[in-house]
Specification:
heterodimer; A: mainly alpha; Four Helix Bundle (Hemerythrin (Met), subunit A); 5 helices; about 0% strand; B: alpha+beta; Alpha-Beta Plaits; 5-stranded antiparallel sheet; 20 helices; 15 strands; about 60% helix
Chain lengths: ~160, ~625
């Protein structure tokens, strides 16, 4: 039987995966639009462009990670969903929040930096590395969100 | 370590200049300095530029029409002596291809113009009046054009009262093709109706005969042109097989362009050039010049005050590939330090911890070994490949330690990070502390080397004392730690503001220096990403395995799909996480490590040498 707690835990997994996924999707999309423009002028730059476009994609993966761990801990994979108390569920929901919000915003902004990095690589192909580093700076915050979400999820003993 | 550079000044005779430049290019050890306007570009430099453009276009054309090079095409070897003689065959090929491609393009253009003319004439093919006869007469005029289909009925109604004869032809996208004759007196009223019903005029081409015949003629002519263009393209395909000659020619031209770019400053009979040479290569440079002539004077001097030589790094073969990581960021400034020897082991360790799956490490190692054997990348790409190869070996080690094999948990030699996150975080932070301490020690070394021992003590050693104090407070019982930490903090506060005037300003400066501890804290926290990235790899692998397992329970079809999911999913995971591991390992070096001591902004040392895109010149 699904208790309110279990439902709240599901909600936590849902927001973590969902919002972080949106962040990555928007970010990768923005970078992809820039990339298409650059490649239309110079198809040889496709490799560099692709690398830069892939950078904002990690937030979605981190969100999936947190969602998966919550779902794993709930026992969904083996088929026996545990009954959680309301407070356990709320704790797991809050544990998913950092990844959700952090992943959403950092993904979008990392996408914008990646798009600018793509324009940088169009003007100066030899400095693509610097564009990659600039985009990777934003990822710090996604990593911090991932970390704290993970520690919080781990801390809820079911 | 950074190689010291010497500045070479050469005086020689102009008649020897070409031979000297050739010898220097073969030797590849001197980077010529341009004096701006005073430097003479040698004769033929512009011509070579045009030739290179022609060769490049020819190569592009050949790539379009010939066989595609496989991804793993290796460079063809060519001896230095053959490289010297400019390939006549290559030059002829370039000319031939230029002519061919020009002809093909003009033929295709003409054919397509004709085809579009035919399309324009399509609605008029039923017209039974030859075009040359279509003209106003003494009493009548005509209008030819398109009327929107919807207006046709209304228009025909309107003109019934006029003495006009409409000839309605085929429908076209622009409307219904129509030819209308009328008496001269009615022309004005007809024009009014035409305007009212959105009639658009059309102008016929100046040809003779019926429209249908003209269309047939044009179609035939276009077909002939296209056929001829096809023939020429087949010819081009044959020429494309001699691609190697063309590539050799291109490489020879680019080497020539580099040689002609800088002829030094000249007088009537002599010239003078300056260049940077590595400290340990001055003998070779002089020998190269002496092999041409003994009428020369060369001097090697240390760089003068204010002159900044380019930077060149030299390391043993384990550390050398990691120069690419520094090159991605910014070369060290001349006279500072090359941190490669410290950076390499940390990069190696961090990469392995971030990828942390021994199965992936194995796949990556084998894959890279095969790829590098086939492609034999040179220069920057070669170094980068080696960095990732070393990283994949590190991955095998850490994967075995953490028990990760393709996402399955097997025999961890150390512990499983997911099960004991705090232990893993402690490991990450411990390594982080080690990394930061190395950075600070490097800075202290640089300061002592430059003679500022007091500065090294106040700015670096003091912090180390304080950190040692914290360490002792946590692990060593007794007040040792507390006193050490307080001592360190005291030194920082008292000496942090030593550049300022007056006791209050100095104390303020000291307190602000102490505030830097927040900077160190955030640097340390950054190392937690090692845990996060390792976790990401492991959990995604687990997800892929779980999905495959669920599919396998659905019968044989499910099993087949599951195999695909496993292969595709793990491959995707490897690619994404190698990118992440490399970028973040490097980022930890650039921001946290280099931030402690690095002086960036070095210029690259690019000597005059034979640099080829396609050929592999053996001396």
């Amino acid at each position: 039987m699904i208790t309110l707690g279990t439902a709240l835990a599901f909600a936590g997994a849902a927001v973590a995966a969902g919002f972080a996924g949106v962040g990555s999707a928007v970010g990768v999309g923005i970078a992809g639009q820039a990339g298409a423009g650059v490649v239309s002028e110079d198809p040889d730059k496709f490799g560099n462009v692709l690398v830069l476009q892939a950078l904002p994609g990690t937030q979605g993966i981190y969100g999936l990670l947190i969602a998966f761990i919550i779902v794993l801990n709930l026992g969904v994979i083996d088929g026996n969903v545990k009954d959680l108390t309301t407070f356990q569920g709320m704790a797991l929901f809050c544990a998913g929040l950092p990844m959700a919000i952090g992943g959403l915003m950092s993904g979008i902004y990392q996408g914008k930096v990646a798009a600018s990095g793509i324009y940088l690589c169009a003007k100066r192909p030899e400095e693509t590395g610097k564009g990659i580093i600039l985009a990777a700076m934003v990822e710090t915050y996604a990593v911090l969100s991932l970390l704290i979400s993970f520690i919080m999820v781990n801390g809820v003993k079911l | 370590m950074l190689i010291a550079m010497k500045k070479a000044t050469l005086f020689a005779l102009k008649e020897d200049r070409d031979a000297i430049l050739l010898a220097l290019q073969k030797d590849g050890n001197i980077m010529l300095i341009s004096e701006g306007d005073k430097t003479q570009t040698l004769e033929g430099a512009d011509k070579v530029g045009d030739q290179i453009a022609k060769a490049k276009d020819a190569l592009k054309f050949v790539d379009l029409h010939g066989k595609k090079d496989s991804m793993f095409a290796s460079r063809l070897p060519v001896s230095y002596d053959s490289f010297l003689h400019e390939s006549k065959e290559g030059s002829d090929l370039a000319d031939q291809i230029e002519a061919l491609s020009g002809k093909i393009m003009s033929l295709r253009n003409e054919a397509s113009t004709m085809t579009s003319q035919v399309d324009a004439l399509q609605p008029w093919t039923d017209l039974d009046i030859p075009l040359e006869q279509l003209a106003p007469t003494d009493t009548s005029v005509y209008f030819a054009g398109y009327l929107p289909e919807l207006e046709k009925e209304a228009f025909l109604e309107d003109i019934k009262e006029l003495a006009a004869e409409p000839i309605v032809l085929k429908e076209a996208p622009e409307g219904r093709a129509m030819l209308i004759f009328c008496l001269k007196e009615d022309a004005a009223r007809l024009k009014h109706f035409l305007k009212a019903h959105d009639f658009t005029d059309v102008v016929f081409p100046k040809r003779t005969g019926l429209v249908s015949e003209i269309a047939v003629d044009l179609t035939e002519a276009a077909r002939v042109k296209n056929l001829r263009a096809d023939e020429l393209e087949a010819e081009a395909k044959k020429i494309a097989e001699s691609k190697a000659e063309l590539q050799l020619y291109y490489d020879q031209l680019t080497a020539k362009e580099e040689r002609l770019a800088n002829g030094g400053v000249e007088t009537e009979k002599t010239f003078y050039m300056e260049g940077w040479v590595r400290n340990d290569r001055t003998v070779q440079v002089e020998r190269a010049i002496r092999s041409v002539t003994d009428a020369y004077q060369i001097e090697f001097n240390d760089p003068a005050e204010g002159e900044i030589p380019p930077t060149e790094m030299e390391n043993n073969s384990f550390v050398k590939p990691y120069e690419s990581v520094i090159e991605l960021y910014s070369r060290p400034q001349a006279g500072s330090i090359d941190p490669d020897f410290l950076m390499a082991p940390f990069h190696f360790i961090f990469f392995g911890m971030m990828l942390s799956d021994a199965g992936y490490g194995l796949v990556l190692t084998i894959g890279l070994l095969i790829a590098m054997k086939l492609v034999k990348p040179q220069g920057f790409a070669g170094k980068l490949g080696m960095v990732i190869l070393f990283g994949s070996i590190s991955t095998i080690i850490w994967g075995a330690l953490f028990g990760g094999w393709f996402g399955l948990e097997l025999h961890p030699l150390l512990f499983v990070p997911m099960k004991e996150p705090l232990k893993m975080l402690a490991l990450c932070f411990g390594l982080g502390v080690l990394h930061l301490v190395c950075g600070m020690l490097l800075k202290a070394y640089m300061l002592i080397r430059d003679g500022d021992v007091f500065g090294a003590f106040c700015d670096e050693i003091s912090w180390l004392i304080m950190f040692a104090g914290f360490f002792c407070m946590a692990f060593v019982p007794g007040p040792v730690g507390k006193y050490l930490a307080l001592a360190g903090a005291a030194i920082i506060v008292l000496t942090g503001g030593r550049d300022k005037k007056g006791i209050p300003a100095r104390l303020m400066g000291g307190l602000l220096s102490l505030y830097n501890i927040s900077g160190y804290m955030s640097d340390l926290l950054s190392y937690s990403r090692i845990f996060a990235l390792g976790l990401a790899t492991g959990v995604i692998a687990m997800v892929i395995n779980t999905i495959a397992q669920m599919l396998m329970e659905a019968g044989p079809v499910g099993t087949a799909v599951a195999v695909l999911v496993l292969l595709g999913g793990h491959l995707f995971n490897i690619v994404i996480n190698v990118l992440g591991a490399f970028v973040h390992s490097s980022r930890l070096q650039y921001i946290e490590f280099f931030g402690k001591f690095y002086e960036a902004g070095g210029k690259a040392f690019v000597p005059l040498a034979i640099r080829t895109k396609y050929m592999n010149v053996t001396k």
